[in-house]
Amino acid sequence: MAKNIIVFGAGLVGSVIACDLAKHHNVTSVDINKESLGQLASMGISTKVVDLAKSGEVKKAVSPFDLVIGAVPGFMGYAMVKEVIEAKKDIVDISFFPEDPFQLHELAKKNGVTVVTDCGVAPGMGNIILGYHNKKMKVEKYECLVGGLPVVREWPYEYKAVFSPIDVIEEYIRPARYVENGHLITKEALSDAELIEFDRVGTLESWNSDGLRTLAKTMQIPNMIEKTLRYPGCIEYLKVLRESGFFSYDEIDVNGSKIRPVDVTAKLLFPKWKLKPGEEDFTVMRIRIEGEEDGVPKNLEYYLLDKYDRENQIISMARTTGYTCTAVANLVLEGNFNRKGINPPEYVGEQEDNFKFVISYLEERRVVYEVKTY
To answer: Given a cut of 80, is residue 165 above it in pLDDT?
Structure first.
């Protein structure tokens, strides 16, 4: 039975989510950007121009809907999710906001709503995979290496962004947390760089980023780390920009005007980072899980190499992020995942039927995780 769904955010990922869900449900897409909405409207999807940053607009918008999808920039995410909970609506969110989602747990439980946060590719699918195996085996080590990159490397950045530029910059400045020998370690972003060879890709550069997020709290695993992947040489110029203050949120005075350097940087860089029509990208992710199952050592590797969908002109990062979100959205809509409160994706993966559903859902859309033991 078709349900009524509202999608907040009509960017590159939000629009893919809306189109995928619209195959079987009634979808309304909401954004402040009329141009983004216009493209969806031309595909027959209902659209509405709303400034979600305005107080009360979120609650007003969600009232007629069965489920909310959050695909807004991270700096808007926490407040948006809180308003959705207050409106007593279920939500699956990919905004990756910096605040601790568990601060909203009691409110969500009290209002009887299901909230799935961080439901993208990483965080997201990596959490689902770990949640599944953590129920079946004693995990000693979890490592996730992930990156979304343009196929064509263009000097100087060799990178293209599909998310809000501020959210991308956050990866370069937010302290990175990982777990080592049972202790939570915090290091600066871009630290511990290493070159790693990937099948059908070549050599990429990995560095510490704050991708573990909820796993650091929900999983009692002694060694866990997530690292971001870019083309080799990327870290050096990012560190120069960061150390020079271009990513700073602290206002400076420029000819009598107060300006945040990060806002200027985002304005300058995003046009250079934006994928042009027809430009192709790929997503690479390697997850390794080590431990014991039934007293026998077991090492698993999940490997994803997903490419731009030429037939439908959908970028890979939108596919891998968006379809994970829509898979879980369908689980919530069908009542197959209805745990009340805040639920990071690892909770979804703990249920074997749900894990298998997500894997199958992605495979139907040609997002395939290759699994092997090593």
So the answer is: no
